[in-house]
Write a structure and sequence with these properties.
A: Sec63 N-terminal domain-like fold; globular; B: mainly beta; Immunoglobulin-like; 4-stranded antiparallel beta sheet; about 40% strand
């Protein structure tokens, strides 16, 4: 049997498993199965996961479109078709705002929290759908999961995950050749404090 | 005079750094020298968290900006980067250590297999990629 056949027979079974394990809608699994391709990259994944039926309830408030437009202009990943009245487009936007760590007004912060509490299970379902088709780019959905949990972009320094490590601290670390979290672990207290500017003398 | 907010932030940094997983990965492939296309291949994998003696193993992700608690999961993936094919996958959680098996079948031809260990909660070094030599499979 070829791998393509193996993938095909497993796909139907995995759809049921995804629904049972992750409590996600059958419609969503159908959408994922139809949309996720062998060459779907991060941008595509972000768009596909945002299209899940689970995000239909994300509210679009009166006159919110102007605010969403201003936020979208500051985000790196753009779409060909923009719809400020779509909860799915809003989800796409709130996820990017999370990776960028943008400060949001209270209403939008609540919506973002609601997106984030659902997104991990949906990404696990993406991994299952892609791996059942033997697509190695399931690795992309795993990257996206890390990005959602840590509020970072995949291209960011790993140091950005550490509390208090803002861009100034990170650039001081990089100048000192400190690039990984393990490097931070190995530092002497004095050097760590000076990179973090936590030296008491500087008070 | 020590500033209490600095002491607090130092402790917070230390907490993250200690929770950040350092995973060791070992594997063996049954009959590695004599694989046949289309027949099940079994890979035995051992994962071990590198922790200091007496230290508790943290299984909840340290993720200040993520709502709720996130249990750290790991994906083990066997694939071939060149052909973009994924052959085997398993999702696991690891306390101190874990022994598990991955079963998969390979099509005919040569494969440059990679074993990926991918964490669902942290970017960077916890994610490991191990490359094997090219395997030429016996035809069915």
């Amino acid at each position: 049997m070829s791998t393509a056949n193996v993938g095909h027979t497993c796909a139907a079974r995995l759809k049921c498993l995804a629904i049972a394990f992750y409590y996600i809608s059958y419609l969503t699994v159908e959408t994922f199965s139809l949309s996720l391709k062998e060459r779907t990259k991060l941008k595509g994944l972000l768009e596909i996961v945002s299209s899940a039926a689970e995000f239909e309830h994300i509210p679009i408030r009166h006159h919110e479109d102007a605010l969403l437009r201003r936020i979208y202009e500051r985000l790196p990943v753009k779409l060909e078709a923009v719809d400020y009245n779509s909860p799915h487009f809003k989800t796409f936007l709130l996820l990017q705002a999370h990776f960028t760590r943008m400060n949001l007004p209270a209403d939008l912060a609540i919506d973002q929290k609601s997106v984030l509490t659902r997104v991990s299970n949906l990404l696990s379902a993406c991994v299952d759908v892609m791996s059942s088709n033997s697509y190695l780019n399931a690795l992309g959905a795993m990257d996206l999961s890390q990005m959602c949990v840590q509020a970072v972009w995949d291209s960011d320094s790993a140091l950005r995950q550490i509390p208090y490590f803002d861009s100034d601290v990170i650039s001081r670390c990089q100048d000192a050749g400190v690039t990984t979290v393990y490097d931070i672990m190995e530092l002497e207290d004095e050097q760590r404090n000076s990179l973090l500017k936590l030296d008491d003398k500087q008070m | 005079m020590a500033c209490s907010s600095h002491i607090h932030s130092r402790a917070r940094v230390a907490r993250f750094v200690n929770a950040y997983p350092n995973m060791e990965l070992e594997y063996t492939l049954d009959n590695a020298e004599d694989l046949t296309a289309g027949e099940p291949v079994t890979m035995a994998v051992t994962l071990t968290r590198d922790v200091d003696e007496g230290e508790d193993v943290e299984q909840i992700a340290d993720a200040a900006r993520y709502p709720g608690t996130k249990l750290v999961n790991w994906w083990l993936v066997v694939g071939d980067h060149a052909s973009r094919a994924l052959y085997g996958i398993k999702k696991v959680t690891v306390k101190e250590s874990l022994k598990t098996k991955l079963s998969f079948t390979l099509p005919q031809g040569s494969h440059r297999l990679k074993l990926y260990l991918i964490c669902d909660s942290y970017i960077g070094k916890p994610n490991l990629i191990v490359e094997r030599d090219t395997r030429r499979l016996r035809d069915m």
